[in-house]
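BACKBONE STRUCTURE TOKENS:
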Amino acid sequence: MSRYLKISATALTVLLAFAIFAPVASARPVVVVRGYYGPGFYGRAWYGPAWYGPNWYGPGWYGSYGYAPAPTTGSVKIDSKMKDAAVYVDGGYAGTVGKLKTFPLRPGTHDIELRDHEGHSFYQERIDVVAGKTLKLTPDIG
């Protein structure tokens, strides 16, 4: 019985030594292959991103064919000779005509007001902004 116990103890010692020191003895770099089950699940397999390529499933996998995202904003272009006029959108200061030129706005109804350098309002208009369209304003200065 002692012979059986010695052999078992020796085998257990060898297995523990391999389990503890095997990763330390391995100096090879770890190759991480991304996949469905997460990185490292597939090990050093020959398949992965390089095998399938970026468009393996085609554009229909990510969205329907022919799908193009719609624009979420419209834009307003103010064409005025007074480049130092202040632009107010819905009561808030947006900038000067010279600096803004064309600026984006959310779709919907907005109040546009232009004021001269002294703060006097010389143009007011309520506009409807449509997503993906540019609305051109030409204030008449008389």
Observations:
- The longest strand covers residues 121-129.
- The chain has four helices and seven strands.
